[in-house]
Specification:
CATH superfamily of the largest domain: Decaprenyl diphosphate synthase-like
Shape: globular
Bound molecules: farnesyl diphosphate
Strand order of the largest sheet: 3-4-2-1-5-6
Protein name: Alkyl transferase
Number of strands: 6
Number of helices: 8
CATH class of the largest domain: Alpha Beta
Largest sheet: 6 strands, parallel
CATH topology of the largest domain: Undecaprenyl pyrophosphate synthetase
Structural class: alpha/beta
Pathway: Protein modification; protein glycosylation
Pfam families: Prenyltransf
Order of helices and strands: HEHHEHEHEHHEEH
Function: Catalyzes cis-prenyl chain elongation to produce the polyprenyl backbone of dolichol, a glycosyl carrier-lipid required for the biosynthesis of several classes of glycoprotein.
InterPro entries: UPP_synth-like, UPP_synth-like_CS, UPP_synth-like_sf
CATH architecture of the largest domain: 3-Layer(aba) Sandwich
């Protein structure tokens, strides 16, 4: 009897699974009629609130890193959906320089959790042909974590199906400062800069020194957790991005949230293009 119940349950599960993947494929097909973003960036907010809700360790004590497990898997699921949709670039704000100001035991457990996740990523991204890139001031990380990040970057350098950029020890102001200082240094040794360049060319040369230079500007920035701020994330790159904030906590983000964000982007883009066209006609 128990065996029969189990096999019926399994069968029901399979039917549900294939039905939901069929529905997802249909919805994605409809989405593809409109413009599909080339780059989506995520501000993954709400991990601690989720841990609290689930009564997971959220006080930074031993094992506190476990609270980011669900968040990590949510990112992997988003990566899969983006691949299926044809979104090539995915960027995740994993740890800001300001996060170093959290309680030391919390920072420590988060860093230990990151290291564990990098090992997992190493297996997952190779299967999915994803190139991993790290954006941020990696000098601020422990030697072990930095070495692991660099290994992952090198090991996936040849993949090109998608590009996953993990912003770690990152703030946008730090990135801009870094790019400007690098550019000044290049100008000092007269490497690339020409005083007669027009501003567009100068901007491009500064942009080349950004941590995010591997990716085009994001089309959509999705922030979970209900806040509407950019919190020092991609300030330079977001000047034409569609900002989409949602109340859902990051580990709870699902396919419908992504679909809704893309639909909003498509509506916004059509509106923006129409405005531009009208501007030209005037
Ligand atoms: C390898 C890799 C990319 C791993 C990703 C792991 C992950 C989900 C990191 C998020 C880290 C973080 C500080 C999120 C903000 O939520 P919060 O802690 O501020 O939560 P709150 O908004 O509820 O306070």
């Amino acid at each position: 009897m128990e065996k029969e119940v189990m096999s019926s349950l399994k069968m029901a599960g399979n039917i549900l699974c294939s039905a939901s993947s069929f529905i997802r494929k249909c919805i994605f097909g409809v989405l593809r009629v409109g413009p599909i973003p080339n780059h989506i960036a995520f501000i993954m907010d709400g991990n601690r609130r989720y841990a609290k809700k689930q009564k997971l360790s959220h006080d930074g004590a031993a094992g506190g890193g476990g609270r980011y497990d669900a968040g990590f898997w949510a990112l992997m699921v988003m990566l899969l959906y983006c691949q299926e949709l044809g979104v090539k670039y995915i960027t995740a704000y994993a740890f800001s320089i300001d996060n170093f100001k959290r309680k030391p035991e919390e920072v420590e457990s988060l860093m230990a959790s990151m290291l564990e996740k990098f090992h997992l990523l190493d297996i997952l991204v190779k299967r999915l042909a994803v190139r991993v890139h790290f954006a941020g001031n990696l000098e601020l990380l422990s030697n072990e974590l930095r070495a692991s990040a660099m290994e992952l970057t090198e090991a996936t350098a040849e993949y090109s199906k998608s590009v996953l950029t993990i912003c770690i020890a990152y703030t946008s102001r730090d990135e801009i400062l870094h790019a400007v200082l690098e550019s000044c240094e290049q100008k000092r040794i007269d490497l690339e800069f020409d005083n007669d360049d027009d501003n567009e060319i100068k901007l491009m040369k500064v942009e080349k020194n950004m941590y995010m230079a591997v990716a085009p500007d994001p089309d959509i920035i999705i922030r979970t957790g209900g806040e509407n701020r950019l919190s020092n994330f991609l300030l330079w790159q977001s000047c034409w991005s569609h900002l989409h904030s949602m109340w859902v906590l990051w580990p709870e983000i699902g396919v419908w949230n992504l679909v809704f964000a893309i639909l909003n982007f498509q509506r916004n883009k059509t509106y923006y293009l129409e405005m531009k066209k009208k501007e030209k006609e005037l």
